[in-house]
Design a protein that fits this description.
alpha/beta, TIM Barrel, Type Iii Antifreeze Protein Isoform Hplc 12, elongated
């Protein structure tokens, strides 16, 4: 299957579609946001993704109980959910400028909407594709709203059971989504390679009959490259100019040079998949001459018998194959033969 996203074809016959996720790494500066767009384009990203919400569309302004992040292991410990989303959100009046800059670089800009108002707003900006975040992958009304746009939809599957995903996929398709991509995702920040389970990717493809990929929150490139070997056709990575600058997602985001390496290595992984193949490829055929073969290793007179001192398996490969060594030992040559002659049957008496 192949999906057209903004004029770019996504599928196993095409190199992986790489998404640079800005998230909140703009640190509330439009200038920095535009620098991130420029750097993502220079790094080879095919698409630039942001998120469309406000603190009020996400949660309530309460600093206690379940609205307060007290987990000592959380990157955002000590903040309320409202404070976190207020800090991380991308102002809606920035969207047009960010999208215009991305399109100017030939990238595909799009966003993750978190409620109906965000979908309506993004429709006005003519986005080519929508993303449903892991935490919203059970929000059936939102999924239906996005599906009714008729645009391709990407859904991250973090935390979702097969039953939950089945409901979400059915809802999307019943509401009109024809082009669906599911991303294997681990909703921890950062995620560990051991907790990523990219072997799920081909199972997702078979189970839901759609394109599949990876939303990768691990550090480094290894998991993303491995996902391509498992059939991922889309990879999303958070992106920042410099982790040292801080930001809500900076600690698990790639810097420009790292993202550029991601582009190169995932392309190599995809190119390396090929198909089931035995025997020399066209590129290898010229190397066949460097196989070992049987050669005369000292000057011989007609009638001399071949022994271990006069014939050996060496490189290059213009003589008989080494498997014939036992057959030729003890046989005589029928003519004078000089050292360095490839052994052929017609030299033997």
């Amino acid at each position: 299957m192949t999906i057209n996203i903004g004029g770019r074809l996504v599928g196993r016959e095409h190199e992986p579609f790489l998404i640079a996720e800005m998230s909140g790494n703009h640190n509330q500066s439009l200038d920095r946001a535009l620098e991130i767009v420029d750097a993502a384009a220079a790094s080879g990203a095919h698409a630039l993704k942001i998120q469309t919400y406000t603190a009020d569309t996400m949660t309530l302004d309460i600093r206690e109980r379940e609205f307060f992040i007290s987990d000592p292991k959380s990157l955002w410990k000590g903040k309320s959910l409202y404070e976190l989303y207020d800090e991380a959100h991308t102002p809606w009046d920035w969207h047009a400028a960010i999208f215009e800059r991305a399109r100017g670089h030939g990238m595909i800009p799009f966003s993750t909407p978190f409620d109906d108002s965000a979908v309506d707003f993004l429709e006005g900006l003519d986005v080519a594709v929508y993303k449903i975040a892991s935490f919203e992958n059970t929000d059936i009304p939102l999924i239906r709203k996005v599906a009714r746009t008729g645009k391709p939809m990407i859904i991250s599957i973090g935390m979702a059971s097969i039953a939950e995903l089945d409901q979400s996929v059915r809802a999307a398709r019943e509401a009109g989504c024809k082009d669906l991509i599911l991303l294997k995702c681990t909703s921890t920040y950062p995620a560990s390679p051991e907790n990523t389970n990219v072997r799920t990717i081909p199972h997702m493809r078979d189970l839901f009959g759609c394109e599949v990929g990876l939303s990768d929150h691990t550090m480094g490139l290894g998991v993303s490259v491995a996902s391509v070997a498992m059939g991922a056709t889309v990879i999303e990575k958070h992106f920042t100019l410099d982790r040292a600058d801080g930001g809500v997602d900076s600690s698990f985001s790639l810097e420009p040079a790292e993202f550029q390496a991601l582009v190169v290595e995932t392309r190599r992984a995809w190119q390396g998949l090929g198909g089931v193949s035995y025997g020399p490829t066209d590129a290898e055929k010229k190397s066949l001459v460097f196989r070992r073969s049987l050669y005369i290793t000292r000057d011989l007179k007609a009638g001399e018998v071949l022994d271990a001192s006069s014939v050996r398996a060496i490189r290059p490969g213009f003589g008989l194959a080494p498997k014939h060594l036992d057959q030729v030992l003890g046989r005589a040559v029928k003519q004078d033969v000089s050292r360095g002659t490839p052994l052929e049957w017609d030299l033997l008496a």
